[in-house]
Amino acid sequence: MGMNRMRRLIAVFALTVTVGVLAFAQAKPNVVIIATGGTIAGAGADATNSATYQAAKVPVDQLIAGIPQLSAAANVKGEQLFQIASESFKNEHLLTLGKRIAVLVKQNDVDGIVVTHGTDTLEETAYFLNLVIHSEKPIVIVGAMRPGTAMSADGMLNLYNAVTVAGSKDARGKGVLVTMNDEINSGRDVAKAINIKTEAFKSPWGALGMVVEGKNYWFRLPAKRHTVNSEFDIEKINSLPRVEIAYASGNVSDVAYRAFADAGAKAIIHAATGNGSVSNTLVPSLVELRKKGIHIIRSSRVDSGGFVLRNAEQPDDKYDWIVAHDLNPQKARILASVALTSTNDSKELQRIFWEY
Ligand code: DAS
What is the reported pLDDT for 202? Predict the structure, then answer.
């Protein structure tokens, strides 16, 4: 074979490899959208209805079809797991969702997961998944404060952002994320702080980053254990022990606490005033309930970041109570329920509250 022919063959081969590599590098990520309902799937009668509408109406394929730009960002596939308002989530919904995600993240043709979800309990689901899914792949929970039928609806951009983040390599290993209003928040920290604005979700210790026009800008990383570093695994959890929340205020009584105990609660989250305070009329009842084997966990009802320390407001060592540290009552309920699947020891439970 002549030298020129050889050179041409080598050039063609090199070009082919280069094109192949470029094509692979530009290959779009594969993102699965698991839909559960909520306002992001809501529909109102009129474009002026930003607050009066029905949640959980629009199917996932219609949500995807409504954002043609998604196809340039990722290969997207939708699954309609539930179609409910999230205030109606039960522990069984958390388990079903978690187990479905655990299957999908094992698939080589899945690079990231988006969960569309109502905003009312989104923060609970996000924290639950953060505790029990063993994968570094991005899992992004997203909702909306206005239905897609309203003027200036926020769901489209929230969902687009969620898909681009879920398909991003730099979102891997950061725990479960929540993308709302251009922010990227940690599923552990974020909570719904305002219920009538699109800027509804806040993390007391700050967002992890921003997502703008499909690009992520990171400013901090999660500090607590999550996902692959968690000792809890959804594949080993088939039920969640009953944990209830009792909301404290002035004039508080022990009626709710005793009713929860009688109903079989394994732990009661005391949604305390201030930094975990307990009314002097309530202390004897909680001491008695602890002696009956029910865990008492002091959290704070303060909505922009409570901070409860052991033996500060109350002698937790003496009463064998637990503190929820910076977790709000609804997050404390999730962690207590997951933790009780593996231990009933109060010292172990307290360790878990410090670490997660
Ligand atoms: N009811 C609310 C929910 O499903 C609607 C929403 O804000 O998503 O959580």
Answer: 97
Among the listed residues 89, 90, 92, the one whose alpha carbon sits nearest the alpha carbon of residue 237: 92
Please indicate, yes or no, if residue 12 is contained in any of the structural domains.
Answer: no
Contact 53/147 with Cβ under 8 angstroms?
Answer: yes
pLDDT tens, position by position, 268-292: 999 999 999 999 999 999 999 999 9
Q: Over the stretch 206-256, which tens digit does the pLDDT of each residue have?
A: 999 999 999 999 999 999 999 999 999 999 999 999 999 999 999 999 999
Residue 39 CB less than 6 A away from ligand 1: yes
Which CATH number do you get for residue 121?
A: 3.40.50.1170
Residue nearest to atom 3 of ligand 1 (CA): 118
> Does residue 210 sit within a domain?
yes
Q: Which domain holds residue 190?
A: 28-229
CA–CA distance, 274 with 52 (Å, rounded to integer): 34
Asked if the structure places residue 6 within a domain, the reply is no
Residues 307 and 340 in one domain: yes
Rounded CA gap, 32 and 24, in Å? 20
Residues 187, 295 within the same domain = no
The CB of 120 under 6 Å from ligand 1? The reply is yes
Give the mean pLDDT of the chain. Answer: 95
Tokens of 60: 């996932």
3-state secondary structure of 301: coil
Q: Is the CB of 50 under 6 A from ligand 1?
A: no
Give the global pTM.
0.93
Separation of CA 95 and ligand 1 centre (Å): 19
> Could you tell me if 73 and 131 lie in one domain?
yes
How far apart, in whole angstroms, are the C-alpha atoms of residue 332 and residue 304?
Answer: 15
Residue 64, in any domain of the structure: yes
Strand ordering across the sheet containing 139-142: 75-84, 30-37, 112-116, 139-142, 177-180, 183-186, 209-212, 215-218
Active site residues per annotation: 39
